[in-house]
Write a structure and sequence with these properties.
By secondary structure, this protein is an alpha/beta fold. It has two domains: 167 residues, Anaerobic Ribonucleotide-triphosphate Reductase Large Chain; 221 residues, Anaerobic Ribonucleotide-triphosphate Reductase Large Chain, CATH 3.20.70.20. Helices cover 44% and strands 18% of the residues. It has 15 helices and 13 strands. Strands 1, 2, 3, 4, 5, 6, 7, 8, 9, 10 and 13 form an eleven-stranded mixed beta sheet that branches. The protein has a two-stranded antiparallel ribbon with strand order 11-12. Strand 9, helix 14 and strand 10 form a beta-alpha-beta unit. The chain starts with a helix and ends in a 9-residue tail after the last strand.
Length: 454
C-alpha cells in the first residue's frame, strides 16, 4: 500500500492536534480445533493456541506505533463463539473457561478478549443455553472477558425466548457486580445481525468463514472530523459538509489500513478489515456529539439530530469505501452515551431521552450503547428495550446492538462512573408502562419479507 509524504505529514498533524488514533488492533483466532471431552482439556487447547498467536501481538503493535507515531490505544483478541467450541460444557465449566480466557489475556497484555458468545438468532443449543446462564458469574469473576449474544437476524427474525432470558441475565450481571456500578453489564452486548469481523468490544468475536488467524483494525477520528468542520463557514450547505467529512474519512481509513497491514505482516498472518467507525472517548474534543453540534444541532437529542447523524454516518462509509476495498466490521458512527462528553451533557440537560436515542440508532452503525438505566428497571422492560432495538436492525437489514446497564441502587438522574474509555453517565429514565405480557409470550418474531432475498 503506497502512501505519500504529504499524507504522512498530514497524519502527524492529525495525531498531534486532533486526537487521531488507531482505536484497536484486534487479533482474531479460530478455536474450531480446540474442542475436547472436558473443560480442562478445552482450556488447555485454548491457552496453547492463544499463546501461540498472541504472544507477540502487543510488542508488535507497539513497534508499529512507534515507527509511524500513531497511537494504537487498544490491543485485543477475539475468539470463536465459545458456545460452539464447548457445546457439552455446563454453566460452571463455561465460567472456568472464561477464567482461562481472562488469564491468557492478562498474560499477553491485551485489554480485552471477546468471544464469550453465542449465536442464537433462531434458537439455542444446550451449549448456547449453558453459556448464556454462565454470563453473570463469568463477567463478575473476570476483568478482560467480553460477552456477546446474537439474538436476531434479518434472515431469521428475533428469538424472543433468548430476548426474555437476556433481560434476566443482564439483571443478574448488574447485581453480581453492584459494588463496581454494575460493571459486568458494560461487557455484554446483545446483537441483531452481528458482524463476524467486528474489532470493537464488547461485541467482537471471530466469526465463521473467517481465516484461521487474522488482524482487524478499528480507527477513530471524531476530533479530526470536528477540526475540519470548525474551519468551514457556518452557512456551508450540508452537501459541502458531507463532502468534507467523506474526504477526511478517506484519509483516516488509508492510515488505518496501513497500520493494520503492517502489524499483520510482522506477525506473518492475514490482514482482514479496517472498521472506519468514529469511536468517541470521554475526552473533550473527541466527541461525535460535537460534530453534530457543529452542523447546527444545539444539543444532541433535539429535532434534526437523527438527520445530522444520518449524514455523518453515510459520509464516513462513502469515504472509507473509496479508500479501501477491505472495509468491514460496523463502520459508521458510534454513539455510546457514557463514552461521549456531549452525549453525557445532553442527558444531563434533558435533551436526550432513551426514545430519541433509539431513533438515532436507526441511521448509525450500532445501537443503544453504554446506556445506564435505573437499577429498579425490571427484566421484562430490559428485554422489551432489547426487542425494540433488534427490530430496527432486523427490518433495516443492519447491525444493531444493546449494551444496557441497570445500575444497582441508582435512580434516574444519578451519576455513575466506570472510568477509562467506558466513561460515566447520568441515569436515563425508562417508560413507566409495562411490556411484561408481551415479553412473556416468547416464541420467535418472524423474519421480515425483505429477508426473502434469494
Amino acid at each position: 500500500m503506497q502512501i505519500s509524504r504529504e499524507e504522512i505529514l498530514e497524519t502527524i498533524r492529525m495525531v498531534q492536534l486532533e486526537n487521531l488514533d488507531i482505536r484497536t488492533v484486534t487479533l482474531g483466532i479460530s478455536l474450531a480445533d480446540c474442542a475436547g471431552v472436558s473443560a480442562r482439556q478445552i482450556g488447555k487447547k485454548i491457552r496453547r493456541k492463544m499463546l501461540k498467536y498472541a504472544k507477540n501481538l502487543v510488542s508488535t503493535a507497539n513497534t508499529v506505533q512507534d515507527r509511524y507515531g500513531i497511537p494504537i490505544v487498544n490491543k485485543r483478541i477475539a475468539v470463536s463463539p465459545l458456545s460452539n467450541v464447548a457445546e457439552n460444557c455446563s454453566s460452571a465449566e463455561f465460567v472456568y473457561l472464561a477464567g482461562v480466557l481472562d488469564e491468557v489475556a492478562a498474560e499477553v497484555g491485551v485489554d480485552f478478549v471477546g468471544g464469550f458468545s453465542a449465536l442464537v438468532h433462531k434458537g439455542y443449543t444446550k451449549g448456547d443455553l449453558a453459556l448464556m446462564n454462565a454470563i453473570p458469574e463469568a463477567l463478575a469473576r473476570t476483568s478482560r472477558v467480553c460477552s456477546s449474544i446474537n439474538a436476531a437476524s434479518t434472515k431469521s427474525g428475533i428469538n424472543m425466548n433468548a430476548v426474555a432470558l437476556l433481560g434476566q441475565i443482564i439483571k443478574q450481571a448488574a447485581e453480581k457486580t453492584k459494588k463496581h456500578n454494575s460493571l459486568g453489564c458494560c461487557k455484554l452486548v446483545v446483537f441483531a445481525n452481528a458482524p463476524d469481523d467486528n474489532p470493537f468490544m464488547a461485541g467482537a468475536f471471530h466469526g465463521f468463514g473467517e481465516p484461521e488467524v487474522v488482524i482487524n483494525t478499528g480507527v477513530s477520528g471524531p476530533g479530526v472530523i470536528r477540526s475540519v468542520l470548525e474551519k468551514m463557514p457556518e452557512d456551508a450547505d450540508l452537501g459541502k459538509v458531507a463532502e468534507e467529512i467523506k474526504k477526511t474519512a478517506f484519509k483516516i481509513t488509508r492510515m488505518g489500513e496501513l497500520i493494520g497491514r503492517e502489524v499483520a505482516e510482522k506477525l506473518k498472518i492475514e490482514f482482514g478489515i479496517v472498521d472506519v467507525s468514529l469511536a468517541p472517548t470521554p475526552k473533550p474534543g473527541d466527541s461525535v456529539g460535537e460534530i453534530l453540534q457543529l452542523m447546527g444541532i444545539e444539543k444532541i437529542g433535539t429535532h434534526g439530530t437523527t438527520a445530522a447523524l444520518a449524514l455523518l454516518t453515510d459520509a464516513i462509509k462513502k469515504g472509507g469505501a473509496f479508500a479501501s476495498s477491505y472495509i468491514g466490521g460496523l463502520s459508521g458512527a458510534f454513539i455510546p452515551v457514557s463514552e461521549d462528553s456531549e452525549m453525557i451533557s445532553a442527558v444531563k440537560a434533558g435533551a436526550l431521552s432513551l426514545d430519541k436515542l433509539e431513533a438515532m440508532t436507526s441511521v448509525c452503525s450500532v445501537g443503544l450503547d453504554m446506556v445506564a438505566v435505573p437499577g429498579s428497571t425490571s427484566a421484562e422492560t430490559i428485554s422489551a428495550i432489547i426487542a425494540d432495538e433488534l427490530a430496527i436492525g432486523v427490518v433495516n437489514n443492519k447491525t444493531t446492538g444493546v449494551r444496557i446497564i441497570p445500575v444497582a441502587g441508582k435512580k434516574k438522574g444519578d451519576w455513575v462512573n466506570w472510568g477509562g474509555l467506558l466513561g460515566g453517565s447520568y441515569i436515563l429514565g425508562v417508560n413507566k408502562f409495562s411490556s411484561a405480557k408481551f415479553i412473556r409470550r416468547k416464541g420467535r418474531i418472524p423474519a421480515p419479507i425483505k429477508g426473502l432475498t434469494n
